[in-house]
Fold this protein.
Amino acid sequence: MVITLLSFLGFLLYLSSEASRVFIPLLTEELGGTPLAVGLVGGAYGFTYFVASLLFGRQADLRGRLRFVRLGLALSALCFAAQMAAGSVVALAWLRAAVGFALGVVTGALLVLAYENRGGVGKYSAWCAAGWIAGSFLAAVLRHYRLIFLLSALACLLAFLLSWRIKGEVLGAKINHPSLWQVLTRHHRVYFPFFLRHLGASSIWIIFPLYLQQLGASKFWIGMAVMTNYVGQSLLMGVAERGDGFRLFRAGLGLSVLVFLLYPFLSSFYQVYPVQLLLAAAWSALYIGALNVLLREGEGRGTAAGALIGSINLCGALGPLVGGLLAYYWGYRAVMVFAALLSLVGLWWSWRH
């Protein structure tokens, strides 16, 4: 079935991105970077991911999904491999920016292509979460940065080769797809709360490995903490798809507030694992709920998906900067309280409007 192949492509893509991402903050520090430099490297990646997602999400509506899936996978393989040459913080920032742009080309197009071949996103998203699991696990096992980057490149290369087995994309009739602004204003109750929640989350994730390291975690246990979240997601994504979109979305916002408030009270890294399972429930409800609302309309799905992924990665650009600054002046726990407050405002907005 085409959906199974598309889901496997998602698995390989997310394996690649997650394996490369997990230890980027630690690599930045080892290259001589400060907490602020950690934020700048993460921000470069997130900004180019954001730009490419918006640009190519719209193009996927106008010109078809499959060509951008293949283009993005090929570019991603090259950029992941190029990370092996990073010898300074500046070089790493440029290379992560290239990776972000390549992923922005493919991610939204692949998501919508999967949706249109099944009418849902649960199975595909569960496979993507499984890719996150595999990526974080393999990163924890391999530990050496160059081996991890090589693994990411090879996985994307395999996905690119397999994408040529997809032959049957059917383009709809030429219609006037809604503009990006029309999509954003129509669904502001989703996009704005989602943006606030993910801005807070991204400010945490950039310093999260350092926070866990401060609590006594090794690289292996840091990878396991990330993997625990993804295991939960892979189990819950398919179940969450059956729920009502807006109810799921608001539940995800509420659970996010709780998770972000629990993080500062950890006294040992072992305590993070049950919280990570709660985080998995929060993200599954939030993400699947948002997609169910945004993609149920037939027009402009590429634009809608690109805007959501763009929002995630705009937060990926801004969040590390915010997280780096807050951590530099007030410590890691201040970042987590900030994230909880943003999610709370997002929950209010989704009800108020």
In short: The chain has one domain: 2-165+187-352. Residues 144 and 311 are 31 Å apart (CA to CA).
